[in-house]
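Input.
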Amino acid sequence: MASSVQQQPAHSGSSSDAEQRYAMYDEKKRKRMISNRESAKRSRLRKQQHVEELCSQRALLQNEQSVCKQQIDSLCQGLALLSTENDVLRAQCAELADRLQSMNSLLHLWAEVNETVVEDIHEIPDVLLEPWQLPCPTQPIVASADMFPF
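Output.
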């Protein structure tokens, strides 16, 4: 009987060891579950923050795209106007070249009638097109230091 009494405490001791091991295992498992939940929660928060950043970036890019479209439309309208104006100017240039040729022909006919030698006028200088070539010499403005009271 004494041996069976000793066995029971040994048996009860081993069951308490097993219970302690299970308790430690359960505690580790519980801590791991809590840690995993917190990690998943942080991951969801990071994902949500990333999605919000992407949404705000999308809105910014859409605004930028809208501005670019407006600029492109404006530039296309300007290009169309300039192209039209360029066509008009080319037509005027061709018309003026024809008129110059006609005038040169008339000048030659007039010279033949009057028996004088006339050279062709190849280009008529235009002061408005070349403002740096003034038709009259510039006069320097003379001023003395005593002219101004300050």
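The chain has one domain: 10-116.
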